[in-house]
Design goal:
The complex is a heterodimer.
Chain A: E1 2-11, E2 14-24, E3 29-33, H1 40-48, E4 55-60, E5 63-64, E6 73-76, H2 88-98, H3 103-116, H4 132-143, E7 150-154, H5 162-177, E8 181-185, H6 189-195, E9 198-203, E10 206-212, H7 213-220, E11 223-229, E12 243-246, E13 249-254, H8 257-268, E14 273-280, H9 283-292
Parallel strand pairs in A: 3-8, 3-9, 6-7, 7-8
Antiparallel strand pairs in A: 1-2, 1-4, 4-5, 9-10, 11-13, 11-14, 12-13
Chain B: H1 2-13, H2 16-32, H3 35-41, E1 50-54, H4 60-68, E2 71-73, E3 80-83, E4 87-91, H5 98-117, H6 124-132, E5 135-138, H7 149-179, H8 182-187, H9 192-229, H10 232-239, H11 251-257, H12 262-292, H13 296-319, H14 323-326, H15 329-336, H16 341-351, H17 356-385, H18 390-400
Parallel strand pairs in B: 1-2, 1-3, 4-5
Antiparallel strand pairs in B: 3-4
Helix pairs in contact in B: 1-9, 2-9, 5-6, 7-9, 7-12, 7-13, 7-16, 9-17, 12-16, 12-17, 15-16
The chains are: A alpha/beta, B mainly alpha.
Chain lengths: 293, 401
């Protein structure tokens, strides 16, 4: 389990992170969300020891992590952080060697990662010859070369096409199943929604919310009923329930899940309802709600 | 750290740019050791003849006579001969070696004798006395013989360029990695301390590799030149420019002239140590400053003043390159101070005698400074790279107390 207590970081007079704390258990995927400048990258850099904390402590498996290299951690930075004049193989070998891995071990791991990421580009190819998405894959592989217990990913979905994005999501879910602690930041909230088990919401360095994603959604209460019907649905809706029309569908927002279920039942009895579904609050709305509050 | 050093060396030494630069170096050294042939190829046929300005009208007879003694007559040359009432006055800004001086003496004596024989003389004694004696007045720098000063000059110049190159190399690398965000990935796998020392050691090893390669190529071409003509052609060509003495006719003689005995070898070793310490100091300081920079543009702004400082230091050192000036208080202080000692101490060691106490003191000063700079530098580097402020940590600790 990764425990983070009271991390504070200042850049001059600006407070980038203020008393941030959370825990990530094994098998968990924590989504770190917030607008630009909310402190997500600073948090990750502090966790990796790339940025000195002014206050706070980090524990892994109950042990306080000292300054220096986090041997159990793997980190994927937001920007491309590779020597583009190197070949894919040299890059991965270099990071493997830095992680004190033997050449045989690195070789096996490279083959494993190639297979996981369905990567077919020859190892001798230089990075500058790769597309943005493939460079991202190589960086991803470099971050995971030592099979870390804690995986920290800053905007990992950037530059990936739909197929690769899905593969990456599946891979992260597989990593979680293997018992890794995973931390991800992303502005692609729908993608986070699909894989995260817990959520940390930051705003200007302040923690606006942290907890199990399911519980947070339940606490927030709000649900959306999506209905596509030729009948008049207005009689079913309360006056204080906002309604929006998107395409052919009507979206009705309810305050509680109980109310949403009742509305769903009453609408399902209508004969001319073509399509009916209930969605709990989305991560994007949850963040907005938490930040507005 | 081993991996970081290995990786750094591989990146520096196994790429196209490095390969091209080494090929260029081989070509340059090859050319340098065959300069006489190149000069001949391009039509500089007066190789071996020292240009001399003497008289206004240069006839073929006079030119032939001068050539017999190893001179070529030209207008307004650096070496000038003027006839005086009592004999000749010779002036020039460069010193003359023994052989050149002897040749000049013989040339001017022959002119004097030819002129003397054309005159009437009252008695035989006076004839013999005046026929044999010609008064030659050497002025200015001509009175000084070429010795190890040339060697000192060459060493200083080489050091200057080495400092510029290697001090900037490590700092440029740090800035490059920082601005390309490579440091984030590297430091997530290796600690800052290892990275810092790997950079410094990598820089020194690169310098050693480059130095060894250069020496190897130099030795290779020297060997073949030695097999060909013992280096005679090259040395006599270089002597025109005062770079070697005219009486040195082979590489063996050149080495013998340097008097590379145990004492002088030790002196060279001391010079190398002082040079290395000075370079290391500049390299570390530039690396620390570079770690605070965010872009290559900022780094180049930093390097400007450092280059100017090194340039000023170089010219000041050259201006002080005489035994008397180097023995002054300024010379002594500069030879014992960190950084300036890398130029002044070798100059003093090569030009004048330096007491053992001064050498030990100089060593202690520079070694202690190096240790302090390395240890403070390590912390400053870590703080810069990890964007922490030592004072803030202190304040936070005090607040919590």
């Amino acid at each position: 389990m990764l425990e983070v207590n009271g991390i504070t970081k200042h850049y001059g007079k600006h407070t980038a992170l203020n008393d941030c704390g959370f825990t990530v258990r094994k098998h968990e995927i924590l989504g770190v969300c917030g607008e630009n400048g909310s402190g997500k990258t600073t948090l990750f850099r502090c966790l990796m020891g790339l940025c000195a904390m002014d206050e706070g402590e980090i524990r892994y498996e109950g042990q306080l992590i000292p300054e220096g290299v986090r041997h159990h951690f793997g980190y994927l930075p937001e920007q491309r952080s590779l020597y583009t004049d190197l070949s894919i193989e040299d890059t991965l070998i270099h990071y493997g060697r830095l992680r004190k891995m033997g050449y045989d071990q690195i070789d096996r791991r490279i083959r494993e990662l190639y297979s996981i990421f369905d990567f077919k580009i020859p190892g001798y190819t230089r990075l500058h010859a790769l597309s943005k998405g493939n460079q991202q894959k190589v960086q991803f592989m470099a971050a995971l070369i030592n099979d870390p217990d804690v995986v920290i990913l800053d905007e990992p979905f950037t530059g990936l096409d739909y197929m690769n994005l899905k593969k990456t999501q599946d891979f992260l879910l597989e990593l979680a199943r293997q018992g890794k602690c995973i931390l991800i930041s992303s502005h692609q909230y729908e993608e986070l929604d699909a894989i995260c088990t817990s959520l940390l919401i930051l705003r200007k360095g302040i923690t606006m919310g942290f907890g199990n994603l399911d519980r947070m959604k339940t606490e927030e209460g709000s649900c959306t009923i999506r209905v596509n019907a030729s009948v008049n649905v207005i009689p079913h809706i309360k006056e204080d329930e906002p309604v929006t029309v998107i395409g052919n569908a009507i979206h009705i927002q309810t305050k509680t899940p109980q109310r949403a279920k009742r509305l769903l039942n009453s609408l399902s009895r209508e004969e001319d309802v073509r399509d009916l579904s209930m969605e709990r609050i989305k991560v994007k709305e949850l963040i907005k709600a938490r930040c507005d509050s | 750290m081993k991996e970081l050093i290995r990786f750094g060396l591989k990146r520096r030494c196994f790429n196209k740019t490095f390969l091209v630069s080494q090929i260029l170096l081989v070509v340059l050294l090859g050319c340098a050791l065959n300069l006489d042939k190149i000069a001949h190829f391009f039509g500089f046929s007066n190789a071996g003849l020292l240009p001399l300005s003497y008289g206004e009208i240069i006839t073929q007879d006079r030119q032939d006579q001068a050539a017999m003694f190893g001179f070529v007559l030209k207008q307004d040359t650096e070496l000038k001969v003027i006839e005086t009432d009592t004999g000749f006055s010779v002036s020039g800004s460069q010193s003359l070696d023994t052989i050149a001086r002897m040749k000049l003496q013989a040339y001017l004596t022959s002119i004097h004798q030819n002129a003397f024989l054309a005159q009437r003389h009252p008695n035989v004694t006076e004839l013999i006395m005046e026929y044999e004696n010609v008064e030659i007045d050497y002025q200015g720098e001509l009175s000084k013989p070429i010795g190890r000063e040339n060697f000192v000059f060459m060493v200083l110049t080489a050091v200057y360029f080495m400092v510029l190159n290697f001090a900037a190399m490590t700092s440029n690398e740090v800035v490059g990695e920082k601005s390309a965000n490579v440091l984030d990935m590297v430091l997530s796998a290796a600690d800052v301390k290892s990275h810092y020392f790997a950079k410094l050691i990598g820089g020194w090893l690169t310098m050693a590799i480059q130095g060894t390669f250069t020496l190897g190529v130099f030795a290779f071409f020297t060997y073949f030149r030695n097999q060909e003509d013992l280096g005679k052609g090259l040395l006599s060509w270089l002597s025109q420019f005062g770079l070697v003495e005219r009486d040195i006719l082979s590489f063996r003689m050149l080495i013998a002239k340097l008097e590379l005995d145990v004492s002088f070898s030790f002196t060279i070793l001391l010079c190398v140590f002082f040079l290395f310490f000075g370079m290391a100091l500049i390299q570390i300081l530039m690396t620390i400053f570079a770690s605070k920079m965010k872009s290559a543009e900022e780094a180049s702004i930093l390097q400007g003043p450092v280059y100017i400082f090194l340039l000023i230091l170089y010219y000041v050192a050259l201006s002080q390159n005489t035994a008397s000036r180097l023995s002054s208080v300024f010379g002594k202080v500069a030879s014992l101070s960190p950084i300036t000692s890398m130029l002044f101490m070798p100059m003093r060691l090569l030009s004048s005698s330096v007491s053992a106490q001064e050498i030990v003191l100089g060593f202690l000063v520079v070694s202690i400074t190096l240790v302090i700079v390395i240890s403070i530098g390590q912390r400053l580097y870590a703080d810069s790279v990890r964007q922490s402020h030592p004072l803030r940590k202190l304040l936070v600790k005090n607040q919590t107390k």
